[in-house]
Amino acid sequence: MAPCDRLYQGANDVGEMARRYFRILLVNLMLSRFFRREGLRTNGDGFS
């Protein structure tokens, strides 16, 4: 019973890390898209 609980806890931790990483990735994607659009408008560089 203990290994099953440990495995379940590990799966929960992995799921939480995946959700957190996905949220950070999504925020970075939106910010980079916004800054790229603003950069194209201001100096034509696009922050690339």
UniProtKB/TrEMBL annotation:
Protein name per UniProt: Uncharacterized protein
